[in-house]
Automatic annotation (TrEMBL):
It comes from Aquibium pacificus. It is a single-pass membrane protein. The lineage of its organism: Bacteria, Pseudomonadati, Pseudomonadota, Alphaproteobacteria, Hyphomicrobiales. Belongs to the UPF0391 family. It is found in: Cell membrane. This is UPF0391 membrane protein ABGN05_10925. The chain crosses the membrane at residues 35-53.
């Protein structure tokens, strides 16, 4: 999932430099949503609410 966040951030940066503001905004919004999901999952694992099988 971190890979997708980085891809979306790169797409947003390149689109912003080329002047495609709507594409840049959409990619940035997608990255923000994924960052939120990763943060929530990390906190749940940290507090032991969900356990990831090793």
């Amino acid at each position: 999932m971190i890979k997708w966040i980085l891809i979306l951030l790169v797409v947003a940066a390149v689109a912003g430099l080329l002047g495609f503001n709507s594409v840049s905004g959409a990619a940035l919004t997608g990255a923000k949503v994924l960052i939120g999901i990763v943060l929530i999952l990390f906190l749940l694992v940290l507090f032991g609410v969900i356990a990831i099988a090793a």
